């Protein structure tokens, strides 16, 4: 055994180590070159087999559902219905996007639904009473409300969650000053109240240390009661305001629709290409340029077809004209882009994933774990408030049941169906959008097929169960494939 | 012989009535591996935690680079250039190698993560340590073997221009080949001029990589010896009895005061 000492010290499991003692840098040779298309595809396939499914199952499910419902129902694949579908699914999708942040930490927010109801009720009260919340709520309730906002500001400041403190302060100012009704102000108020609610939830979870399941279960009941108190048994608050009505029911005009197309596709292309060429320039491993261009091209074609279809007149009768991309599309897109940006490109987002993956590692790396845990609840409740604006706008009123029922369950379901893991650390914001689309299609399609509510519930539940099984099984697969 | 990078003088530490560390003196030289050995409960981990700023010391002096320093927390230790690789690796499974190496200290450009810069720096560090087993620096940590994880954890410590690296039983849970990898890495750290402190129970590991061996016995520094000057048996005696021939604590009776 007169082998060189050098080769002795390089015993590794990797089969690529047959030629020992190369230059140090060349050991990463495999890592520096740009991949060929075949390699990129193989790489992706290897990851899928290794249990990193991402949103692949949900996307496949989406395609299957589209085909099934189109063949079973004549009305499903009509322009009017598809646009309707987008508007129906938007509120669940937006609430689900907020929940993704919470789920990434392996926590849960069961109160997001009824909390969104509270924000909707406050928004409606402010509108109806022309800014006079004191009159709308009654003395006691109003002072308790303001007291809670002050509490939220203090808690957020103590934990250095400045955004939560600032938004709560804005809510306090709007509530206290009594500015006359204005649709934009009402919507801002709803989001700020949402942030304040999230601050309280987050403090109880992160600082007091109560499991999020229990905190949000309790608050689910509390906020449900608060909605009832604000609106009154059997009452309904009508939202008679064009701006608010248009959030869920309005459409962009022809120019606006195509402008959205240009901005969305152009922006995507700019971001992707900038990163791609910067990686190539620096000699880092990158996908082949043709594949990147093909992806952008496919997206552009798809977006163009959708934009074109939606800008046709889809009114069922000749008396009215309904055309253009619904407002909810840019709304969801903007939230998706901002949220994805925060998760993928900022330290804050990186820290969320780290805390979700290994809390202790994050702590030792100097990350303020409590602050991160508190902040995600602020995000979730604020997003829930935006969802509340959309569903209130869709219905045109707020009733005591707002945000109750299965709003929350569908939102959690949307996030999980899209591929967000309930165990934390795994998931992306687009999961919520894809999952939201799956649920919206099921509800809409089953409705068109005149299925009773019983069947719709059972099918929705089974789909959620299926998604959770895929998550659990792919995790097990990832664990065994690791070594 | 160069100046010691880290020097402890008369460190004492008690947890309530339990006097864990008695007047510990320890010198860590750059470019040397100092093994810290001792039986369970001898105070190895406590000593490391005192150096890392996790436990405050009761009395004694810490000199870093010849200057007295007062380490109040892990952050300050890291700022000085003291990094600790803990026994239970502090890595997040769902992040890739680059993300883990920069965790908590991400490089940003205009408020955004500078991924390409971090990836290049991570690669450079791994290459400088001649880490050959990792196929891509974008591999998720969950898919790495135990030895590779340990490698990443050590590389993470090196990335920060650290001057002293403390390794708490880095080979405890590893197989033969992986132990080999990690020991090579420890040696390379020293060759790069870092002061390395290696805590280990495994005498073979200690004799293989250490230049000097510091033996703790019941919270006292029994002896600091050159690894070439002693035998396995002598070190084992130092660990179990605190003395071996004329090495170690002079008389057992004196040690019981």
Number of contiguous helices of chain A: 21
Q: Helix amount of chain A, in percent?
A: over 70%
CATH class of chain B: Alpha Beta
- The name of the CATH topology of chain B is Rossmann fold
Widest beta sheet: strand line-up of chain A: 1-2
Greatest interface and its participating residue counts: A-B, 46 and 46 residues
Percentage of β-strand residues of chain B: 25-35%
Largest sheet of chain A: 2 strands, antiparallel
Tally of alpha and pi helices of chain B: 9
CATH H-level superfamily of chain B? P-loop containing nucleotide triphosphate hydrolases
Class computed from helices, strands and strand pairing of chain B:
alpha/beta
The overall strand count of chain A is 2
**Count of discrete domains of chain B:** 1
Order of helices and strands of chain A: HHHHHHHHHHHEHHHHHHHEHHH
Q: H/E element string of chain B?
A: EEEHEEHEHEEHHEHEHEEHEEH
> What is the multimeric organization of the chains shown?
heterodimer
Tell me the helix content of chain B.
25-40%
Return the structural class of chain A.
mainly alpha
Features:
heterodimer; A: 483 residues; mainly alpha; two-stranded antiparallel sheet; 2 strands; 72% helix; disordered N terminus; B: 257 residues; alpha/beta; six-stranded mixed sheet; 33% helix
Give a verbal description of the structure.
Helices cover 72% and strands 1% of the residues of chain A. Chain A contains 21 helices and two strands. In chain A, helix 5 packs parallel to helix 15. Chain A is globular, with a radius of gyration of 25 Å. The model of chain A is unreliable at 1-30 (pLDDT under 50). Helix content of chain B is 33%, strand content 28%. The model of chain B has no long low-confidence stretch (mean pLDDT 85). Chain B has helices at 44-51, 74-80, 97-101, 115-128, 146-159, 176-191, 203-209, 232-241, 252-255; strands at residues 6-15, 18-28, 33-38, 59-64, 67-69, 82-85, 108-109, 112-113, 164-168, 195-199, 212-217, 220-226, 243-244, 247-248. With 257 residues, chain B is an alpha/beta fold. In chain B, 49% of the residues are buried. In chain B, the strands form four sheets. Chain B has a six-stranded mixed β-sheet with strand order 6-9-10-3-11-12, with helices on both faces. The radius of gyration of chain B is 19 Å and the shape is globular. In chain B, strand 13 (243-244) and strand 14 form a beta hairpin. Chain B has one domain (6-255): Rossmann fold (3-Layer(aba) Sandwich). Chains A and B meet through helix 16, helix 17 and helix 21 of A and helix 2, strand 8, helix 4 and helix 6 of B. Chain A: It is a multi-pass membrane protein. Chain A: It is found in: Cell membrane. Chain A: This is Xylose transport system permease protein XylH.
């Amino acid at each position: 055994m007169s082998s060189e000492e050098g080769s002795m010290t390089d015993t590794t499991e990797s089969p690529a180590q047959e030629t020992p003692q190369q230059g140090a840098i060349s050991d990463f040779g495999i890592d520096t070159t740009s991949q060929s298309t075949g390699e990129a595809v193989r790489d992706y396939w290897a990851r899928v087999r290794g249990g990193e499914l991402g949103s692949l199952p949900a996307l496949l499910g989406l395609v299957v559902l589209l085909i099934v419902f189109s063949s079973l129902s004549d009305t499903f694949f009509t322009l009017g219905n598809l646009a309707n579908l987008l508007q129906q699914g938007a509120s669940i999708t937006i609430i689900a996007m907020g929940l993704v942040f919470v789920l990434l930490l392996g926590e849960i927010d069961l109160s997001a639904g009824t909390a969104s109801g509270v924000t909707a009720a406050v928004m409606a009260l402010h509108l109806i009473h022309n800014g006079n919340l004191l009159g709308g709520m009654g003395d006691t309730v109003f002072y308790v409300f303001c007291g809670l906002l002050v509490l939220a500001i203090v808690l957020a400041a103590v934990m250095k969650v400045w955004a939560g403190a600032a938004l709560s302060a804005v809510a306090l100012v709007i509530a206290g000053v009594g500015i006359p009704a204005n649709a934009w102000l009402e919507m801002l108020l709803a989001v700020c109240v949402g942030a304040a609610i999230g601050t309280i939830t987050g403090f109880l979870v992160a600082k007091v240390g109560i499991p999020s399941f229990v905190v949000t279960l309790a608050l689910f009941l509390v906020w449900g009661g608060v909605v009832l108190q604000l609106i009154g048994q059997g009452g309904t608050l009508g939202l008679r305001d064009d701006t608010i009505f248009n959030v869920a029911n309005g459409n962009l005009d022809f120019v606006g629709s195509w402008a959205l197309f240009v901005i969305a596709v152009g922006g995507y292309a700019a971001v992707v290409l900038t990163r791609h060429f910067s990686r190539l320039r620096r000699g880092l491993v990158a996908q082949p340029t043709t594949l990147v261009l093909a992806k952008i091209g496919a997206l552009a074609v798809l977006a163009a077809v959708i934009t074109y279809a939606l800008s046709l007149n889809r009114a069922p009768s000749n008396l009215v004209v309904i055309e253009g991309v619904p407002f909810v599309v840019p709304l969801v897109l903007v939230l998706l882009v901002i949220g994805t940006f925060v998760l993928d490109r900022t330290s804050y987002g990186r820290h969320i994933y780290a805390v979700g993956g290994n809390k202790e590692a994050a702590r030792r790396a100097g990350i303020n774990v409590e602050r991160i845990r508190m902040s995600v609840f602020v995000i979730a409740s604020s997003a829930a408030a935006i969802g509340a604006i959309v569903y209130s706008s869709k219905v045109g009123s707020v009733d005591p049941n707002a945000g109750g029922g299965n709003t929350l369950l569908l939102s959690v379901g949307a996030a999980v169906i899209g591929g967000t893991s309930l165990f934390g650390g795994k998931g992306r914001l687009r999961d919520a959008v894809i999952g939201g689309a799956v649920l919206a299609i099921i509800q809409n399609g089953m409705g068109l097929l005149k299925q009773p509510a019983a069947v719709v519930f059972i099918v929705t539940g089974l789909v959620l169960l299926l998604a959770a099984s895929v998550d659990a099984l792919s995790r097990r697969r990832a664990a065994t494939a690791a070594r | 012989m160069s100046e010691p990078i880290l020097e402890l003088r008369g460190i004492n530490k008690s947890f309530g009535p339990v006097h864990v560390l008695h007047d510990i003196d320890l010198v860590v030289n750059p470019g040397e591996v100092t093994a810290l050995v001792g039986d369970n409960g001898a105070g190895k981990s406590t000593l490391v935690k005192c150096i890392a700023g996790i436990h405050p010391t009761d009395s004694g002096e810490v000199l870093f680079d010849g200057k007295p320093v007062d380490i109040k927390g892990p952050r300050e230790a890291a700022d000085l250039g003291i990094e600790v690789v803990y026994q239970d690796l502090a890595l997040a499974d769902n992040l890739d190698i680059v993300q883990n190496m920069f965790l908590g200290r991400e490089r940003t450009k205009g408020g955004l993560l500078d991924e390409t810069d971090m990836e290049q720096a991570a690669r450079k560090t791994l290459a400088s340590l001649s880490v050959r087993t990792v196929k891509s620096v974008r591999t998720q940590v969950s898919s790495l073997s135990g030895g590779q994880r340990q490698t990443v954890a050590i590389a993470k410590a090196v990335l920060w221009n650290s001057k002293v690296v403390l390794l708490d039983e880095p080979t405890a849970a590893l197989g033969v080949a992986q132990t080999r990898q990690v020991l090579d890495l420890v040696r390379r750290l020293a060759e790069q001029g870092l002061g390395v402190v290696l805590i280990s129970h495994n005498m073979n590991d200690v004799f293989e990589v250490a230049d000097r061996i510091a033996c703790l016995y019941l919270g006292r520094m029994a002896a600091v010896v050159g690894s070439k000057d002693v035998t396995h048996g002598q070190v084992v005696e130092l660990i179990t009895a605190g003395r071996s021939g004329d090495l170690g604590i002079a008389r057992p009776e004196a040690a019981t005061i």
